[in-house]
Amino acid sequence: MRTQFLLLLALLVGAHGAKLPKKKVCVIGAGACGIISLKQFVDHPDEFEVIAFDKNSDVGGLWIYTDSTTLDEYGLPVHSSMYKYLRTNLPKEIMATPDYREFNGDRSCVTHETVLQYLRNYTDHFQLRRYIQHNTLVDKVTPIRGNSDWRTTKYTVESHNLITNESAVTTCDAVSVCNGHYFKPHLPIISNLESFPGRVLHSHIYRKPEDFAGQTVVILGASLSGIDLSIEIAKYAKKIYLSHNKPKITSPLPENVIQVTGVVGANGDKLILKDESNITAEVLIFCTGYEFDYPFLDKNSSGIEVVNNHVKPLYKQLINIKHPSMAIVGLPILALHFPIFYIQSQYFLALLQGKVKLPSREEMLEDSERLPPGKPERYAHFLGPAQWAYNDDLAKLGQFESLPKYYKRGGHMWTSYRDANILHYKESDLIIHDDGSVEIVHVEGRH
């Protein structure tokens, strides 16, 4: 009897101590979003096996600058929208993720080269390169439903190597989609634009202001990129018309920047404005944003569709309601991008670990259709001040720590300061003190 008891006890202990099979996670993209997502799963090697695919030869995604504005070395459309002299409009102190604060640079608003180096340092610090297959384009992701709940769904990820053209199929248990959303330009319909003899381009292919020396330029759109390009090009151009339908910017702008209403049509070299007046220019630059695009996801199999730039059906702007083991990370606009990638990836990790209990399908679909108050559908993923409650909500549901309070304090303070000092805010630094308090310090003589 004693022998039988000991044998049974050994079997019970063995069963209790047995490891569950690892889940294999595929991460699509190795830009900021991809490497931050990858790192969360790499931190749990006993639970997850991870592989990432990226079409570039190094990490960085959007932040890899190129002079090319058409095709890359593989004949694919250029992914990056970086321009030569870009400095960030957010301070590095609140761009950095909570788990890696080592952001170089002698000022808060850093160059794109500095941001790219941060991402490369992040990758090396957490030893992520071994998990990334570069020069690899993902062609198709197909869910294969399991026999029970969503946790038994598998995915086939079809890809090919851009150098050898060799194809491969990877099977996994979960997919983190991190392909970015600043690469497919949104071009509004402008009546009779074909009659305009001047140059027409989107900010996606803008690279340097010298190209517009002595010209009259219309910039359509007055979000941060439109304002940034107006200020930069104004140093070389004869005149800038900043065309938009937002409330007039009250902060001082360069003397040769004139605010006008939005362009709605063209009549030869004259551009017609919303107030029915017209202006003459040699260049029209669209700073009108980007469209979400997932060419590797079939609507019928994945369930994901983009309607009026609203990606759905997603729970919490993140989880594919039809296949919850698929997350589309990094959608929120007007937010601290790197930190929000971190929070979203932590939530997806917690979901796959079983720490998160999803609500009913009906509740998730209702959440998916929720829009910012008073805004049309194309603003579905705009967060702005709502990002703080969003982050805290995901952290609470996922049972992990939300962002330190200095992110919110710094974000609020910097946004107000930037709006009031459009011309010179990048000359200042955001200081985060040891007690979590923040302040902004203007540095005299800095340009």
Jot down its keywords.
447 residues; alpha/beta; five-stranded parallel beta sheet
Distance linking N and C termini:
85 Å
Question: Which word captures the global form?
Answer: globular
Structural class, by secondary structure, is: alpha/beta
The profile of the biggest β sheet is: 5 strands, parallel
Q: Unreliable stretches, pLDDT < 50, 5 or more residues? A: 1-17
Please give the share of residues in helix.
25-40%
- What Rg, in angstroms, do the CA atoms define? 24 Å
User: What is the chains' assembly state?
Assistant: single chain
Summed over residues and divided by their number, the pLDDT gives a mean of 94
In what range is the share of β-strand residues?
A: 15-25%
Total helices: the number is 10
The total strand number stands at 22
Strand arrangement across the biggest beta sheet: 3-2-1-7-20
Describe the structure.
β13 and β14 form a beta hairpin. The N and C termini lie far apart (85 Å). 38% of the residues are buried. The protein contains ten helices and 22 strands. It has 447 residues and is of the alpha/beta class. The protein has a five-stranded parallel sheet with strand order 3-2-1-7-20, covered by helices on one side. Strands 8-15-9-10-11 form a five-stranded parallel sheet, covered by helices on one side. α2 packs parallel to α7. Helices cover 25% and strands 22% of the residues.
